[in-house]
Isocitrate dehydrogenase
Amino acid sequence: MSKQRITVIPGDGIGPDIIDSALKVLDKAGCDFEYDFAKAGLAALEETGELLPQATLDLIEKNKVTLKGPLTTPVGGGFTSINVSLRKQFQLYANVRPVLSFKGTKARYENIDIITVRENTEGMYSGAGQVVNEERTQAEAKSLITRDGAKRIVEFAFDLARRENRKKVTAVHKANILKTTSGLFLEVAREVAKDYSDIQFEEMIVDACCMNLVMYPERFDVIVTTNLFGDIVSDLCAGLVGGLGMAPGANIGAGAAIFEAVHGSAPDIAGKNIANPSSVILASIQMLEYLGMQDKAEKIRKALTEVIDSGDRTTRDLGGTGSTTDFTQSILDRL
């Protein structure tokens, strides 16, 4: 039986360091993957003149599963977001952002366990119809929501809830004001919910959702929403468990999946060996679950949980004094 091949994009800034940590953890857990390394972002731009070289796209297409570090898209100059480009290219319509409380972090809450399922290809992030007039006194952009796109993402959220024995799906919207786009999304969510009578369904306006997440986060289980709201709400959820350093993300489509650290490339601490690799290790756990390797995923999650709880050589953002390599070694020791 041939080994599972994984495309690995180390990324920019702290990316190579935290990706290296994740690969060591995967190897120590006995995952036995073959890695094909590819470049994107500033590292690729310097070498090839392109942010997203064709060779990288070909490897993602070939292996179907990719682990990615944070990438930097240069500001201005007409550069399109690399993440948005990847989502469009491979129709990665579902962005899955779980947050889970870990004892030992500086988080303000305990017992948080929320998954945000964000539509990844439509809405305000589609980039459609972006126009600024010559005087730069007026700008506009188009938001497009399709019935098929809404149905696909809501069904994904309900299927995930059912698979993981979760109790509730909350559709987050702004249909009271955005009566066409958000209205269609909510209409479809209500229709889909009827096919999942075993799972509680609720709907919530996005501003009320943000308030309730801060005041009563334990009320939430699975959140499903459109692209722009999902981006904001998922970062808010990350804040409940200690920040983006503890928040992984999966981008899933019918034919490919990309798992990533959702934080930025943090160039100010690049090469200093102080970055927290938890986000990309948690993304690796998501990847293992996607591949049906739940036993390995649980093994790594347990080791990571124990290290953070004990404070054994944890990084500064977790209240410790350890380096990236110290923190990684603590996880490897437990594995």
Residues 49 and 126 are 25 Å apart (CA to CA). The chain is about 40% helix and 15% strand.
